[in-house]
Structure formats: C-alpha cells, structure tokens
Amino acid sequence: MALSKKIVIDSTLRAAANVRSSNLPYDILKAASARLSSAPSGGKHMLPDLPYDYAALEPAISAETMTLHHSKHHNTYVTNLNVALEKLDSAVSAGDVSAIIGLEGALKFNGGGHLNHTLFWENLSSDSELKEGPLKAAIEERFGGVDGMKSVVSAKTVAVQGSGWGWLALDPTTGKLEVATRANQDPLQATTGLIPLLGIDVWEHAYYVDYRNVRPDYVNAIWNVINWDVVEQRLLGAQK
Fold it and tell me: Residue 76 CA to chain centroid, in angstroms?
C-alpha cells in the first residue's frame, strides 16, 4: 500500500501510538482517526430510537421483521462497534500498530452496519409521498422520471450478490444523482465518496420473514414506505 498520502491526526493520538503519522497506512489512519473523533460524548454509540412503531410500515415490512432487524441485528452492530473502538483505544495507547491495522475489518463492518441502518430507519415512513421540489426535479433530470429512477435502483439492488445495499446517492464532484451498490456493510461515502440519500438493505434479515428469498418483491414493496422528505433534506444538505 502506498504511503504517499498523509492525514493529520491529533498530536496526543500520535504520541500515544508512539509512531509518526507517516508510518501508518493512510486508510488505517483515516479510519482510526474518524472512529475516535466521531464517538458520542458519552463514549459509546447507542441504538437509535425509531420515530415510528414497529408495525407502522405494514404491510410492506412487518412488525416482526422490524423488531428483529432493529432490536437484534442493528443492536449487534452497535455492540460490536463499541467493542472494536475499545480495542482501538487500547491499541493506540499501547502503540500497537499491528493491532490497530488488525481492527480495520471490524470497524468497517460494524461501523458501516451502524451508519447504514441508522440512515435506513430514517429513510422509512408510513407517509410516503414524493412532492414537487428539488429532489423530484433532480430525479427527472437524471433518470427521466421517478419510475425510471425506481427501475434503475431496483434492478441494481436486486442484483447484489449475497448481502449488501443499494443506494441512490449524490456525486459531489458532478452534482448529479447516481445509483450504486455496496457489498456487506461497506459504508457508501467512506468507500466511494458518494453521498448517500436513500439506501435499501438487501441482507436477507431485512426481508426473509415477509418475502422469504424473493428479493424483488421486497424491493418493489419498499418504495411504498420511503420517506421522501428525509431523502430531499439529505440532497439539500449535500448540495451546500
């Protein structure tokens, strides 16, 4: 891995690690610094409360699926992220570069799982209406219409091999909407630079209770419970 890139990290963090910042791979430094600096004031990440009841999205997503997905699966990512961050703190304090690097996978998987699911819950609402406005205009400009956008996002999301996510995103370099997929829990912005606006979880735990292994039916149904107001707010925030 090339070491030509550098990232500035807090001097106390470098001192605790007893290494120069230029001696660590750029990706590891970036991930470690970001995870430490983004930790909540209490030092622990928490499972977010939902702004709706578990049954609110029926029949598209059942209360049983929502209960398992939120209280079990998402909670596991939060728990394991906190464990990984504690290990990272210990590794940094001990100056154990090997241990820091070894935590990259756990931070990416569990941190991504927490980020992705937090965004996903905000994506959903029983009141789903795409109103006239900047988001609809951007969709029409890029895809020719809302149905065209849904078709592209659905096709790419359904085609994800194994487990992963489908995304409607903003490319900050072009200002245009893009469609992307990521495997497992890889967070979109951290791995591609695209800013996530709308995500569809296609891990089987997101739909198996309701749709068994028929992923296309689940993806088709989820369009009925998208919180377009939140998606538009993300677009406007990303354009600033």
Answer: 15
Instruction: Report the 10 Å Cβ neighbour count for 24.
Output: 22
State the Cα–Cα distance between residues 203 and 213, nearest whole angstrom: 10
- Cα distance between residue 104 and residue 84, in whole Å: 9
**Residue recorded with tokens 């890029």:** 142
Q: What's the token pair of residue 95?
A: 């100056």
Task: Provide the residue type at 88 as one letter.
Answer: L
CB 172 within 8 A of CB 24: no
pLDDT value, residue 43: 72
> Using CA atoms, how far apart are residues 44 and 220, in angstroms rounded to an integer?
36
Report pTM: 0.83
Q: 3-state SS of 165-206?
A: EEEEEEECCCCEEEEEEEECCCCHHHHHCCEEEEEEECCHHH
> Distance between CA atoms of 56 and 125, rounded to whole angstroms?
8
> Six-digit token pair at 117?
């699911």
Amino acid at 94: A
- 23-27, 81-85, 228-232: least confidently modelled range: 23-27
Q: What are the start-end ranges of the E strands in the chain?
A: 164-171, 176-183, 195-201
Per-residue CA distances from 67 to 79, 118, 147, 197, 220 (Å):
17, 15, 30, 24, 21
d(CA 4, CA 22): 8
pLDDT in tens, 157-183: 999 999 999 999 999 999 999 999 999
> Alpha-carbon distance 234 to 15, whole Å?
37
pLDDT the model gives residue 225: 98
